[in-house]
Amino acid sequence: MRTKRSQPAQRKPRADAQRNRERILEVAKGGFTRSGANASLDDIAKQAGVGPGTLYRHFPTREELLQAVYRSEMEKLAAAGRKFTQSMPPIEALRAWLLLFVDAIETKQIIAPALNTLIGDHKKVFAASYARIHQAIHALVKRAVKSGDIRKDLNSADLLRALVGFANLSTSPDWPQSARRLVDILITGSRPMN
Hints:
Layout: H1 15-35, H2 41-48, H3 52-58, H4 62-87, H5 90-118, H6 123-147, H7 156-169, H8 175-189
Helix pairs in contact: 1-2, 1-4, 4-5, 4-6, 5-6, 5-7, 5-8, 7-8
């Protein structure tokens, strides 16, 4: 009688390996922010407190590290929506999340050109994150509408478009500060009309 071979279960990474990975991603985000795609991977490893071998074990190529930084930032943004929903009133949760979204746009603007130079079809990297982001903003807006804090006719995607559009049109280095002010304008404009 033949027995069915089971696939080996994927093991969770050891806690220290997971911490190393997270430290590398955080330091890499800073390095890419300062130096673009050409940030020194050896410097990133050193600042993260790991050897180059550890960095390359987690991220064999520069492209994989860039992709992982981007995905990590988008995952944090999506998770923040759930966290804010549990810990803040609806309108405050929406505002806090939109402010984080401004930071995410800034990260994408830094990483996207680097990914464009390294890989041909960068859209696959970005596409997977969009669904999570749209789910997060949709849930936050729906909750704010239900509480009466936001107009019923507000489309959650409109808030994202306003911030992304502003970031894409702005050429000044202080656009993130202006975008944060825009968040307050958008929240005020989204309130129900009396």
